[in-house]
Amino acid sequence: MGNLLKVLTREIENYPHFFLDFENAQPTDGEREVWNQISAVLQDSESMLADLQAYKGAGQEIRDAIQNPNDIQLQEKAWNSVCPLVVRLKRFYEFSLRLEKALQSLLESLTCPPYTPTQHLEREQALAKEFAEILHFTLRFDELKMRNPAIQNDFSYYRRTISRNRINNMHLDIENEVNNEMANRMSLFYAEATPMLKTLSNATTHFVSENKTLPIENTTDCLSTMASVCKVMLETPEYRSRFTSEETLMFCMRVMVGVIILYDHVHPVGAFSKTSKIDMKGCIKVLKEQPPDSVEGLLNALRFTTKHLNDESTSKQIRAMLL
C-alpha cells in the first residue's frame, strides 16, 4: 500500500485520487432518498438503449410514398410505419427530460456545503455511481443516435405530412400524442448530433445559473474530480485489478469523457486550458492506450462535442493528440 501511495503521489501530484467503487457502491441512509429518486429514472435506461438499437426506420416506405404521390395505399403504408416510430422518439425525448431533473438533483447533493466536491464523491459513492451511470447511458445513447440517420428522416417526413394535413384542415389522431409544440421541441432535440449530452450540458449550465449562492467551482470541481478519479483508476494497475469486469473499464472511460465534456461546457475557460483542473493530456493518453475500435467514438466525442478544443488557449500538443 505504501508503494501505491508513493506512485500515486509522484504521478498525480495535485489531482484528486481515490477508488470509486462503480461496481458495488451502496447508498448510506443519507443518500437513500436521492438515490431512490435517481434509480427510478435509471431503471428505464437499458430498455431505452435496446429500443434505440432496434430502431430500423421507415426509409423504404417513405421513399415509395414520395416517388408515388398519387398512390393512396403507399401514402397510408408510409404514414402507418412512421407513426409508431414517432411515438417511440417521443418516449426517448421525454426520458431526456427525466434525466435532466435527475442530474440536477444529483448536482445539488454532490456540491452542497459544508463538504468539498471531492469529499462528497468519496463519502457518497452510491450517488457518484448514479452520476456515472447517467453519463454512461448518455454517451451510449448518443453513439447509437449518431449512427442512425433514419431518426431524423422519419421525423422530418412526419412533420411534413402533419403540416400538409393542417393546410387541408385535417386532424390526425397522432396529434393528440405529438402535438405541434411537442413536435417543435422534439425537432430541436433530434437536430443535435449528441442530444442527450446537450441535455446534460444545458442542465448543468442551468444548475449553475440558478444556484447563484453556490460558487461555480463547486460544480466544476465535482466534474474535474470525477474525471481525475476515472483517469487514475484506468491508469493504475492496483486500482484496475479491483474491477471484476472488463465492462467496468469501458464504463470508466465513458464517464471520464462525459464529465470532461460537461466541464468544458460549464467552466468559463473550459477543459483544455492550462488552468483547467483536468489533466487532459493524461486523459487522452489513457484513451489512446486502448484498442482503437473501442475508443474511437469517445475520442470523436472529445473532438466534436466539446466547446473549447479549438480555442487559442488550447495547446498544440493536446490538439495534435486528438488529430
UniProtKB/TrEMBL annotation:
<dbReference type="Pfam" id="PF07159">
    <property type="entry name" value="CYRIA-B_Rac1-bd"/>
</dbReference>
<dbReference type="GO" id="GO:0031267">
    <property type="term" value="F:small GTPase binding"/>
</dbReference>
<keyword id="KW-0449">Lipoprotein</keyword>
<protein>
    <submittedName>
        <fullName>CYFIP related Rac1 interactor A</fullName>
    </submittedName>
</protein>
<dbReference type="GO" id="GO:0016020">
    <property type="term" value="C:membrane"/>
</dbReference>
<dbReference type="InterPro" id="IPR039789">
    <property type="entry name" value="CYRI"/>
</dbReference>
<dbReference type="InterPro" id="IPR009828">
    <property type="entry name" value="CYRIA/CYRIB_Rac1-bd"/>
</dbReference>
<keyword id="KW-0472">Membrane</keyword>
<feature type="domain" description="CYRIA/CYRIB Rac1 binding">
    <location>
        <begin position="18"/>
        <end position="319"/>
    </location>
</feature>
<dbReference type="GO" id="GO:0030833">
    <property type="term" value="P:regulation of actin filament polymerization"/>
</dbReference>
<comment type="similarity">
    <text>Belongs to the CYRI family.</text>
</comment>
